[in-house]
Amino acid sequence: MRRVLTMIMLGAAVALSGCSTVDYGDAQARETVNTDFGSTDLQMIASKMVDDMLVFPPIVQLTQNRRPVVFVDSIKNKTTEHIDTESITDTIQSKLLNSGKFRFVDMTKVESVREQLDYQSESGLVDPNTAAQMGRQIGAEFMMYGNFSSIVKREGSTKDVYYKFTLKLMNIQTGIIEWANEKEIRKTQKKSLFGM
User: Fold this and answer.
1) Residues of the signal sequence (predicted)?
2) pLDDT tens digits for 138-153?
3) 56-88 pLDDT, tens per residue?
4) Nearest 10 degrees: Cα torsion 47, 50, 51, 55
5) Residue 86 sits in a domain of what CATH number?
6) How many domains does the chain have?
């Protein structure tokens, strides 16, 4: 009886879930569902920023014989949308790191690193010969930071969204901005008379 009840419940669950399928798509394909910020926008911004930075003559000279250390500060989201700006900077950071021209320190993990250093030096459970030493981390030379803003306009059935992403690289010691660039994106959507 219990087995029959289980089979009936399983059948009901399958019936209620419907006959939906999930397909994999090309993550690099152009995404044009609506005017909201999407994956295509993120990829365009990251490519533009990295490509521009890597060919900027002072940056080429700076990275010719060494890999400067950078930390990424948060990007200020000044849009009306909830946008995960960390995803944008993660992609930019990954591309720059994989170029072999830069190194990064992760300021979001400072507390976790401190806890691990304390554990290694104070717990008595770690061989002192293999424990990481306090005060040996390398300081960042540059800070990467920026802003993300938008202007949204509507008229009748038309919605126009202008996005502007600005990124800067500052020399921490001198306060001089060594590089800056921006990427602009405009998206327009017209709704049909029937709201489709």
Assistant:
1) 1-17
2) 899 999 999 999 998 8
3) 999 999 999 999 999 999 889 998 888 888 888
4) 170
5) 3.40.50
6) 1
